[in-house]
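Researcher: I've been going back and forth with a colleague about how Cysteine--tRNA ligase might be arranged in three dimensions. Neither of us has a model we trust, so I'd like an independent prediction. The organism is Candidatus Uhrbacteria bacterium CG_4_9_14_3_um_filter_36_7, in case that matters for your notes. Sequence below.
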Amino acid sequence: MAIYLYNTLTRNRDLFESIQEGKVHMYSCGPTVYWFAHVGNLRTYIFSDILHRLFLYHGFDVVFVMNITDVGHLTDDADAGEDKMLLAMRREGKTAYEIAQFYTNSFFEDLGRLHILPASIYPRATDHIKEQVEMIRSLEQNGFTYRTSDGIYFDTSRLTSYGMLSRQRAEEKQTGIRVNIGEKRSGTDFALWKFSPTDKQREMEWDSPWGKGFPGWHIECSAMSKKYLGIPFDIHTGGVDHIAVHHENEIAQTQGAQGCLEARFWMHADFLQVDGGKMSKSLGNLYTLDDLEKKGIHPLAYRYFVLQAHYRSKLNFTFEGLQSAQNALFHLFDLVRDWDPPNDEVSLSYKERFEQALDYDLNIPQILAMVWELVGDASINSSQKASTLLLFDKVLGFHLIDYVAKPLVIPQDVQVLINEREQARKMKDYHLADALRAEIQKKGFMLEDTEKGPKLHSF
Ligand code: AMP
Ligand code: ZN
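Model: Here is an independent structure prediction for Cysteine--tRNA ligase. You can compare it with whatever you and your colleague have in mind.
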């Protein structure tokens, strides 16, 4: 087995060799829990899930850390703007703890619905203030910090390697930064600790050697990855938007405080776009999994949609695309129901090609194509197809075991609802028809309207 993964640090598909034999230590930047995750965010978590599953598939002992950001992430990456958590508190009239709890739970539900395997640990930033303060102390002792009237900042000019991830020197980055840098010495310098306002108490604040305040956003990931994984660790992941600022700064902090590279591999998933642009609340094109479900798209169909594109290419979000992904997945479920049970005789040629595609930088689109090739392969009996497909599914994560060789049985109460819905549709009472469809969905079934009439799928 030789695993090659694209490393943003080297701009190469590098041979992956874990630091400790048989073990993989990986870290993914998790959500800021001030709002629901949108499907763009979730694309990035599906990517880290596939990576996680790659290592599990090969039998590695994986320690996977994903942080929960519940303080310090400002609305503006240049250390200005408001703390997103405080904005949410005002919006909803709740405490920071309640906000964090609510959106963290919602995030975990989304992960479950997408069959994303849980991380080993989800450390929260607010539970690790001490570790963050200690790291800032080390940076201070090593001469990488300075003080302004509003906080303690990292002095990027003191670190010769600054810019190694984005491959932009500090001076080059300046030209891209047009915001007012205030008292910062350089646009690339960033906050490690911010002081609470002097005139009033901040809702979330802690004592520190520099005064009451709160940590900057980047320090939590350096401090918590060090605590739970040790440095250097194997792989750090996130979305491509993290390359230039968040991950660059994480690398700088660990380099400054510990004198070593934080992680060997830095992997980034490209963006989910809408009409070639950003998915954002203000443009009204932001969707959550609930929004998709309201439009009849099952979360697993979203997973299938995402897996059709390689993680390093942009993916355009359209409902037509989602619908065809859903049709393909439903069709797969229907087909495998009629197969014979698996017999543990995996097709070795398919297995070999599957592993080649997987191990060469997670070529999941190729594996999906292989799924359909296998389904239509007349030279293999259905038991062997089932065993082989279930092997693929360890990584694809559709829980095909729930469908293989299990013909659909429609419960009586669901059949009654289907008949009632057909009746409502005939009477053109679409409101009632939709309500009945929702009722059917609650019972774990999804209706697809085909030319031959309604077709039922179960999850
Ligand atoms: P945030 O909660 O804003 O910190 O973002 C959580 C994760 O989602 C980060 O890894 C981001 O890089 C990623 N992300 C944000 N927007 C998108 C998008 N449109 N497509 C893919 N990933 C995204
Ligand atoms: Zn992070």
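Researcher: What would you highlight for our discussion?
Model: I'd start with this: The two ends are 35 Å apart (CA to CA). After that, consider the following. Residues 39-57 form the longest helix (19 residues).
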